[in-house]
Amino acid sequence: MGLNDEFVDRELDIENTKYAEYDSTVDTLETEGILPIRKIPEIRSANGLGYGLYGKADYHKESGSYITTLYCVFCFIPLIPLRRFRVIPGSSEFYSVTFSKNYNFMWELQLTKNQKYHRNIFLISLAVLVLGLVAELRWGRP
What we know:
This protein is an alpha+beta fold. The protein has two domains: 1-32; 34-139, no CATH class. It contains two helices and six strands. Residues 94-100 have low confidence and may be disordered.
């Protein structure tokens, strides 16, 4: 009975050590701007409106992975950067009209400083446009 209890205690110590190592690894990655993926994004676009992955940066030869950005798309133009991911491309599958590419998402990264500027400038411009239209409709031209 004493040997069995010692074995269980050692097993628990090993499990606790594994969790501690995992927690420290996650903390290190988060301080470097690498985040666990909250939710796999829906990558859909219909008639040029929706979401899409754009760009390939920091290609890694061994894994075949690269960093790409999820954008909000309007008229096939990527307008608002939403999130960045490191992905491994999967196989392309042919559907009736278009190719659909599968991705394996490894982890999420923070947007770059330029992408944050891009997003904020676009949203501010959109707010100014909407306020201008509301003012025009409310008070009209003199």
